[in-house]
Amino acid sequence: MRGGVSGSFKLELLVVFILLLCFQDSSCSAGSLIKDIKEDELLPEISPNAAPQPLLPLFAPSPLAPFTNSTLPKLSGLCTLNFDAVKSMMAVTSIDCVAPFAQYLANVMCCPQLETTLVILIGQSSKKTNMLALNGTLAKHCLSDFQQLLVSQGANDTLQHICSLHPANLTEGSCPVKDVREFETTVDSSSLLAACGKIDLVNECCEQTCQNAISEAAKKLALKAYDLLSMDGSHVLADHTTRVNDCKRIVHRWLASKLDPAGAKDVLRGLSNCKNNKVCPLAFPGMKNITKACGDGMNNQTTCCNTVERYVSHLQRQSFVTNLQALDCAASLGLKLQKANVSKNVYNLCHISLKDFSVQVAPEVSGCLLPSLPSDAILDQSTGISFVCDLNDNIPAPWPSMSQLPASSCNKSVRIPALPAVASGQISKGLNMWSHMLLMASMILGICCISNAAILAY
Fold first, then answer.
1. Among 182, 191, 164, 162, which residue's Cα sits nearest to residue 247?
2. pLDDT tens column, 134-166
3. What is the DSSP string of 312-362?
4. Coiled-coil ranges per the record (predicted)?
5. The whole model's pTM is what?
6. Pairing between strand 369-370 and 321-322?
């Protein structure tokens, strides 16, 4: 210790300092902290003449690698699911949902992988049980054991809350079919498998070949309920849409039973990405300050842009987003501003880019846009947790037209800004220890400020 303060001890001091700030400073801003660090300490170690390359931001450098230390899980002993069948997938899930960052990766990585793993777990187990769902009691025990196993490998211990996961998600819900034999006599299983055995991750979201096959199968399963109800004179207990959605879950599990776990993961994560990329996951708090500073009659551009940047800084504490989600977020916020009497293109005026809608990784990297195709976090025992970001940055956020719907990647006639290139997985060496500490500090600040950000009167 005489030669200086160790990296891990610096981190402890920084974390304590940030937590104290959270309690003492209601503004909870990391800006002043970041500005106090010398600028040359944060510069990436890459040639300024080189084209920007995809980046793997390292969340946990070697002194922090114990994020993933294994502990002994406390299992109920009552769950009959075969966890060994998805052992490797659960390891990936625990990394995607690693404790400190699960909430920031929830919508793009953690929850899709978590839900996919559960579907495959039940599907693979059905090979022995011939059942595509669990009863309520068993579901409760199995979900608890599932989370305990993940937590023992470093996952966040509040995944059920983060991903809105309940024991009912493991049952058949209102779908009348859960037996494998009955399933296969009710639907055209050969056509379903042909459509979904392997999907084109790029075109499936537009062509919806597999999605249409799943919907058709789910509708056939749902109709069985009306046959049963007509036989005993019972009343319908769930509306048709709810029943079809519950039956889609059964279809997913059947597919997972017919494919190997890796193939099932590709299909199910691809389908979840189609859904996720269509919706902006960010919540937009009130924007009256932007309306006041940037509305019609604006007389001070600096005041307007400072207000916009403060607003965007709170969006950056919510979640990582994909390229396509960033497009939707830009369109959603732009339309809200226009309806609030902001007619000028403040994105162009204030140099707002797509990356500004995602969590900030580090000062020299800025916002990280994740690939629009499914991706996972990576664990390296020497460097820690990382994932792919694309550094083809500074793509201007498009200001939407009130007369047009938000741009869609499926509409070939609509011109949208060039998206960052698909990340090639090359690793940048531009993140040093202090960069990682600043990232964690900003994450801690984000946690402290979540409640404040939700009620800011912008």
1. 182
2. 999 999 999 999 999 999 999 999 999 999 999
3. HHHHTTT--EEHHHHHHHHHHHHHHHHHTT--S-HHHHTT-BGGGGS-EEE
4. none
5. 0.78
6. parallel
